[in-house]
Design brief:
Layout: E1 2-4, E2 8-13, E3 16-20, E4 30-34, E5 39-48, E6 51-55, E7 67-71, E8 75-79, E9 85-87, E10 95-99, E11 105-114, H1 121-128, H2 132-138, E12 156-162
Antiparallel strand pairs: 1-2, 2-3, 4-5, 4-8, 5-6, 6-7, 8-9, 10-11, 11-12
C-alpha cells in the first residue's frame, strides 16, 4: 500500500495494482487498510485473539452499532494517528510472474521500500537490482524524475524484485 495525496491509495492485490481514492482523513483517526484495498478510519483499535476491533465513530463511545471488527488475515496494515504502524501481511507470499524480453517467465516478489534521507532513485535501484525506469513505472513517478533524483524521506515505494 502506498498512500499519495494526489493519486490516492495504491494497493497491490493478486499481482494487480489497484488505486483507490483517498478517504477524507480525520487526524484523530487511526486507519485500517484491508488486503481487499479498503481504507477504514478507526478509533480505539485493538487486537485480541486474531480479531482487530475498532470504534467506527469517535463520538459514540459504547454503542454496539459503533463497533467494527476484522479477522487479522484480512488486514494489511494499521496506521495509527501518532505515526506508528502495525504491518500484518507477509510480503513473501505476494508473487508476480513477469514475462522477460527473451520470453521466459521470471518470478518476482513484491517489496515495499521506505525511502531513507538522501536516497536517490539510482541508490534504490542498485540496492534491489532493478531498473530506475521500472521503479518510476511501478510507482507512477513523474517522467521528470531521473536516476539522480533524491526522494523525500519516508516515501514508500513498491518494487518487484527477482527471487
Amino acid at each position: 500500500m502506498i498512500k499519495t495525496e494526489k493519486r490516492g491509495t495504491i494497493f497491490f492485490i493478486n499481482g494487480q495494482r489497484i488505486i483507490r481514492e483517498n478517504v477524507k482523513s480525520d487526524r484523530s483517526a487511526d486507519y485500517i487498510y484491508l488486503i481487499s484495498g479498503e481504507e477504514i478510519p478507526a478509533w480505539q483499535v485493538s487486537l485480541n485473539n486474531g480479531i482487530i476491533s475498532y470504534q467506527k465513530d469517535k463520538a459514540q463511545k459504547r454503542a454496539m452499532s459503533n463497533i467494527g471488527a476484522f479477522p487479522v488475515e484480512e488486514v494489511f496494515l494499521v496506521k495509527y494517528n501518532d505515526g506508528s504502524k502495525d504491518l500484518f501481511t507477509d510480503f513473501d507470499s505476494i508473487q508476480v510472474v513477469e514475462e522477460t524480453d527473451n520470453n521466459e517467465n521470471a518470478m518476482l516478489k513484491v517489496v515495499f521500500h521506505e525511502v531513507l534521507r538522501g536516497e536517490s532513485l539510482s541508490d534504490i535501484a542498485e540496492k534491489y537490482g532493478v531498473d530506475v525506469n521500472k521503479i518510476k513505472e511501478w510507482n507512477e513517478l513523474p517522467d521528470a524524475f531521473n536516476s539522480g533524483t533524491t526522494l523525500k524521506a519516508g516515501t514508500q515505494l513498491m518494487l518487484q524484485v527477482k527471487q
